[in-house]
Batch of 4 targets.
Target 1
Amino acid sequence: MQRRDFLHYLSAGAAVGMMAPFGNVLAAGSVTMPGNTGANGRVVVIGGGMAGTTVAKYLRLWGGTGVQVTLVEPNPSYISNIFSNKVLTGERTLTQLTYKYGTLTSKYGVKLVTKSVVAIDPTGQQVMLNDGSKLPYDRLVIAPGIAFDALPLSGTAANQAKVVHAWQAGAQTTSLQSQIKAMTKADTFILTIPAKPYRCPPGPYERACVVADYLTRTAKTKGAKVVVLDANPGIQAEVENFTNAFNNIHKNITYVPSAAITNIDADTGTVNTSAGAFKGKVVNAIPPHKAGKIITDNPLLASAGGRWAGVNVLSYESNTVPKIHIIGDAAATTQPKAGHVANAEAKVCADAIVHLLRGEAVNPSPMTNSACYTPITNKTASWLSVVYRYDPVTGTMLPTGNGVTESSGINAKNHEEMLKWFSNLMSDTFA
């Protein structure tokens, strides 16, 4: 099998065949919904991102009519973080990256509740909503994504507001796009990267590349510079490809490792770090990450250093609270925090919950995968891939084979394949 075909296979609905015993694999343009599979119960899912939407869909697709699924998500739609870097350069719009939940409800029978969760009662097994109503559950899945630590900012409120992370697609993406467009050839764009773990390991380096490419291609910004201040000791993903990109393709990028932020003066655009002070016209500071608020507000759930949720990766059930599962970026696992991984974790979780509702043991050797394409310019891209398998000795998901593999080059063909990968992944989650 060609590697590009392998990546497509893992990205599309066929990937479920590695994990699901029920044979309900999506075929092009059709869905086979099962009747009663012997699984019966109420599952509430909190969070409608890549992980939450996928688990809700596959709980119904594999669990059948006996599994009632309710998705609690206060927003009427989801904006993809994947490809949001292309919004900064005008190659995509937020509208093009917006996905709604209509198919989830009409085709799969998931009940959508557009409310906010205010509390969880694990003893009574119910979720309390902001309108005072309660949702009882037999199994609860929490997929809250990430939250951010506050940055050490100084300066006027107006200037502090210009220092955005744009690491969750939305209003900050638009703000950063406007700031980049206002740059001139004499300006500098500063990007800060937090210490790992953070969402999408190659993402910040990708952003540096696409912004540097945009500045070079635009007449009024040709000559502008990009400075990458990385709190980590080195590039965290696709080391060979990004090193090549920084050294040979984008000569306007300066990469500075081990540069942890100590203070950002928003009035002067000065970023003070452990590696020195740097000044820029635009400061794009990505703060340190932690699990979404619903996890960190609950000490029992935030069992991994108070910042992440410790889980059993056979089912993603909490290590400390029974019948509550945490998937996606909020979970503390050996897998990267990324949209493709969230999709894969959701399928393992859905499969496990269906087995548990049938009174059966869960799959003792689940597999997941991480596949990611990265735009380097507006016409070229690279990729990485790795397959994880459960290791019973460590109780973790470990890379199989040669571990993480990255493309041997940066080229236009990869860019074409990237578009197919994205389409497959988003279709598998939302269609």
Note: The chain is about 25% helix and 25% strand.
Target 2
Amino acid sequence: MNTDQIKALLFGVAVGDALGVPAEFSSRQEMKQNPVTDMRGYGTYNLPPGTWSDDSSLTFCLAEALARDFDLYVIAENFIKWYYQNYWTATGNVFDVGIATKAAINSLNHSGGITPDKAGGFRDTDNGNGSLMRIAPLAFYLFDRQIDERFEITRQVSAITHGHIRSVIACFYCLEYAKQLLEGKDKLIAYRNLQSEIAAYLSFRSIPQSETAKFDRLLKGNIYDAKEEEIHSSGYVLHTLEAAVWCLLTTENYRDAVLKAVNPGEDTDTTAAVTGALAGLCYGLENIPQEWRKQIARRHDIEDLAERLLLYLQKKQYLCQTI
């Protein structure tokens, strides 16, 4: 693991997010009439090019916590600081926040004694993409851990804002894909590996078939054969995960993957952020267009965060080797 891999993931998220911010909530028809082809600004939120949203902010809040060590309370506190104190925002202001995420952060801030992994909703309707959009940096911390620990820690971090098992599985799938890409696996080979490995693990954990069946397009089918009209871009967690994997598998570079994620419209920033995390790991930092990276808000702060996270990971690895 090296600095460029961490930067590839963090900038992969931020660039995808920033591409999607000006077009968020646009319909598919509107996007076909005016597709995104480059970094642009203003639009939905009237913000300059390179401005990223809550997707990246909460991703960086998680990475910032992990640069110190894994502590669920520190992660949750960073989320609270983001919402109430504009911590790790692009412009000094929170301008986008999901309903479930806002409710969970309010619970953490005002309900004394609640543990972070009980703050997120557990209902069937609590399956927005708010934990999936920020989960990617956890891949670095989980990389050398056993699968049971990977799943349990993923569950805890997702549940800070989204506790339903469907959101947890979506986050777990994304992180397992990221792990395989970090190991240097081809993206299609990784996809095939996950079909057997994740299906077997979910069965081992006795997760209800009614839930695992919702992932059949990923775990049993060939998602890359789906037509664009069969891929949805709403804020539903499963739609976002399927769209991100579809965009990754049906393109051959970072630029095409994230633009393909933005142009169906709707939840453009989140779809592109999740796609960007995987595409960044798949193709590497240098494949993320330099002209886009240069426009990203707080670029130097993101680079510094990546370097600090690597230092912690190297220290952790050294301590494990000497024990």
Note: The CA atoms of residues 50 and 126 lie 30 Å apart.
Target 3
Amino acid sequence: MVFSILVKLGFWQLERAQYKANLQQTLNLRQSAATFSFSQIVELSKQEAVTGFKLATAVTPVSQDVFLLDNQVYQGRVGYLALQALQVDESKPWLLVELGFVPASLDRRQLPKITPIQNPSRLAGRVYQKQLNPMSFDLMAEPGWPKRVQNLNIAQLSALLKRPLANFVLQPNSVPNSDYPHPWQPIPLSSQKHQGYAVQWFSMAAVFSLIMGYLFFKKIKQRDNK
């Protein structure tokens, strides 16, 4: 039973590796595709995942409030991903825009000061949708502004803002008057990582079978010697 579980885990990792390889190919194709309007991406997001598509749209900062997505790592530094909800059109949902990565202070009580987008702007970049962790998916918003949150739960963000939000985030190529970096990691684990994990599971299965085989033949030999 243990051997069977180890082998199945190995094949599962190979399936994940193939899935990630196909996803990376899809993302590459989307980067070379035409730029969409906000309305087009909204409609497309109702049918499929839209991570990787390019978007260009005008935005208006109705609110200066900034959200800080906690527990982010960029180039070995721990910090936050700053986000701001912006209006595209009065008849459309608001758009969550990534302002960039901001390093965290050693003192958790001190939150960084973020300069939000303050004037109507035209932004261009790519969109993404973060997958929620089934073990931890609640917003867990803290009091005050900027507001620290633990997960990018757009439905709960929308309820907090009392405004409809599009179910994706725009990572702009650049933000006016800002030089925060924009980490791009749409695939948390690469295809190569999953292949490496598959090799580990198969290796464990092989070692387990060798140990069981050794113990089996040792037991037979002891029985024959009696």
Note: The longest strand covers residues 77-86.
Target 4
Amino acid sequence: MKTILAVALLLLPLHFIAQVKINAPAPEIALPSGTDSIIKLSAFRGKVVLVDFWASWCGPCRMANPFVVKLYNKYKAQGFEVFGVSLDTKKTAWLKAVKKDKITYTQVIDTDGWQSKVAERYGVEAIPASFLITKDGIIAAIDAEGKWLEEKIKQLLGQ
């Protein structure tokens, strides 16, 4: 019994370290794009960024994509960016979904899928998962959706 408790206490902090929190700095992401160039989340400092974890095979993700595309098109000129992180293991399936869903915002892929260190760092246990990041790189919202997400984006853009 003492051994089980000791192991649980040792593992417990790892679980909390892996998960991000509102008002905490967003962990760096550096992953390849469709052209294999590495893109870093920190390159978008100064913009409001929605980090969107998804995959081509995820039905709810694909259903959410049109709304995210609409938000991006509506607010990109004001300093809003979407940083899509695919957990696809097959690059061709991901690129096909990007094209079909008419995604024009920044996309990167972690072909480690559910073994993704980036997803682990963000505490992603299911997709879609999203993190709204301020211009200063601070997490402002986690898994915000719909009207609430749009209102939060407008607030962070100063509108």
Note: Residues 2-18 form the longest helix (17 residues).
